[in-house]
Amino acid sequence: MAEVELDLAGVAAGATLSEPPGASGLVLFAHGSGSSRFSPRNRAVADVLHAAGFATLLVDLLPEEGSVDRRFDIELLGERVTAAADWAGRRGLPLGLFGASTGAAAALVAAAERPEVVRAVVSRGGRPDLAGDALPRVRAPTLLIVGGRDEVVLGLNREAMSRLRAETRLEIVPGATHLFEEPGTLERVAELARDWFLEHL
Q1: Adjacent-strand bridge partners of 116
Q2: What are phi and psi of 148, to 5 degrees?
Q3: What is the mean pLDDT of each successive set of 10 residues along the chain, which is 201 residues long?
Q4: In the sheet that 2-8 helps form, which strands lie side by side, from edge to edge?
Q5: Where are the domains of the chain?
Q6: CB-CB contact of 73 with 62 (8 Å)
Q7: What is the pLDDT of residue 67?
């Protein structure tokens, strides 16, 4: 595990790179609202991916301090995920994106901007609808994971799915709310993500 600093469209951002020997792919995490590379939920999913032979890159997309809330600035987040994808792509491994909350929209924007680089996308409790006009341009196979009790976000994911032209699958985790805090639900997310990346990376 190594701490690295990335230039994300002119902003220095901290990141954690974990690269198991002989890694078969690299998964870039696009964190959502109020999250960071130290998020226990993201690290739990990353651990499952490491066990499956994937490298991971967890990046702080909003490192700057300030009073302006930019968690829903999808254009800004998309630019930063795209810059991180460019950096990750130079590692020479097949690249996947794992996005949560608004980070899922940013991941889809990056996938639309870098179709030759991004090979697969997974969204956990995400807001893919916020990717807007980028959705029809996404070519990477996309997995949307939503909690069964997260009804509003489930509806928004179904709406976004109708606009995605790439291979897309919606997986509903029974009994889960938005943050997948219920016993066993986050483990199910990690298994679904692992299997999607094993298939497409």
Answers
A1: none
A2: -65, -25
A3: 92 93 96 70 95 96 67 91 97 96 96 98 97 98 98 98 98 96 97 98 96
A4: 2-8, 11-18, 54-59, 25-30, 95-100, 118-124, 142-147, 168-173
A5: 2-200
A6: no
A7: 44
The SS3 call for residue 112 is helix
pLDDT score, position 62? 85
How many CA atoms does the CB half-sphere of 89 hold within 13 Å? Answer: 15
Does the domain formed by 2-200 have CATH 3.40.50.1820? yes
CB contact at 8 A, 40 and 186: no
Distance between CA atoms of residues 52 and 171, nearest Å: 20
Please return the burial class of 145, using the count of CB atoms within 10 Å of its CB with bins 0-12, 13-18 and 19+: buried
The two tokens of residue 176 are 């889960």
